Amino acid sequence: MDMDRVPRLSRRRLLKGAALAAVPYALLPDARAGAHTASVDYPAAEWRPASSSNYTVSARPGAYAIDRVIIHVTQETYADTLAIFGNPQKKVSAHYLVRSADGHVAQCVRESDIAWHAGNWTYNTRSIGIEHEGWVDRPAYFTDAMYEESARLTAAVCAEYGIPRDREHIIGHYQVPGTDHTDPGPGWDWVRYIRMVNFA
Questions:
Q1: pLDDT confidence of 192, banded at 50, 70, 90?
Q2: What is the C-alpha separation between 147 and 153, in angstroms, rounded?
Q3: How many CB atoms lie within 10 A of CB 80?
Q4: Which DSSP string do the residues of 189-200 spell out, in sequence order?
Q5: Tens digit of each residue's pLDDT (9 = 90 or more) over 50-89
C-alpha cells in the first residue's frame, strides 16, 4: 500500500468523530425517519417489505374498517413469494407470509395499508391477507408449525380489530366474490385452524 496515498485524519476530524460518538442515540435522527414501514405490526414477524407498487397506502382502520382475515396459499415457495411481492411488475402482495417448515412469519405490508391479495377491491380494503407457503394439492406443506404460528397471528389480528374468530370473518380466498382462486384448498383443516385461533 502506498503510504503517501493514505488519507490522514486531521485533529478537527478526529474531534468531530469523538463528539458525535458522545451524543446519546436518542438525540440522533432516526435513520428510518419517514419510513414507517420499517417496523412490524405483529411483534413475532420479520419485516420483508413488498414493493410500494404492489399495495395502496392507506390509514386503516380509520379510512376503512378491518373486519376479516383472508387465508391464502401461495402456490410458490416462501422465497419466491417474497420475490414476487418485491417485484413492482407483479401488482400483488399480502400483509403476511407464513413459512411451511417452521411457521416463520414475514410482514410484507403494514396493516394500515391495503394489500392487493383478494382480487376484489372491497375485500382488500376491509381485510388482512395472510399467505401460507405451499400448494393447494400438497397438504403436507400445512405443517403443525405453520398452523400454530398462523393461528397466533390471526388471533392477534382479530384481537386488534375486534374481529370475531369464526368462519364468517376468517375466510378462504375462494370465498371472495368474483375470485377464480381455490385456496387454501381441501387440504386446509378449517375446524382445527379455527379452534387454534380461538385458543391462541
A1: very high
A2: 10
A3: 12
A4: -HHHHHHHHHH-
A5: 999 999 999 999 999 999 999 999 999 999 999 999 999 9
